[in-house]
Amino acid sequence: MKKIISKKGIILIIIPAFAIFLQFFLRIIMKKDFNTIGISLGGLSLGQLLPFFHFDHFISSKVLGINPHYKFEHGKFIISYDTSANVKPEEIESIKNIFIIAIFINLALFLIIIYLGLTNHIILHTLFGLISCVVSWYLLIYK
Q: Which segments cross the bilayer (predicted)?
């Protein structure tokens, strides 16, 4: 519970959860259908994980807590990490691979979400969106 109330938890879970709550609330008040909630959840989960796909230093600094040091020498921008903390290279590769697998799982879930929305399976559509968000949140908070 302490991790959820941390700065990372507030940004990654509480603010998006409030946006989702607001969407549910407005849909219930306006008596509209729920056909966009699943896509919103799926898009939210992909948006939280995709930066990790292209920037390896996101995993090092955000997930493992290793602070990068930036230098600009001879026309080159250099990012270095002090790994004197108890971080093993195998752990970095393992977490990187977990994030890549999670991104592909979330992409597949997003395609399923779109299909379920088009075929009017709104409850499954929303459920798969929620599963996609939970996968992202679990990785970003507890890994």
A: 9-30, 98-116, 122-141
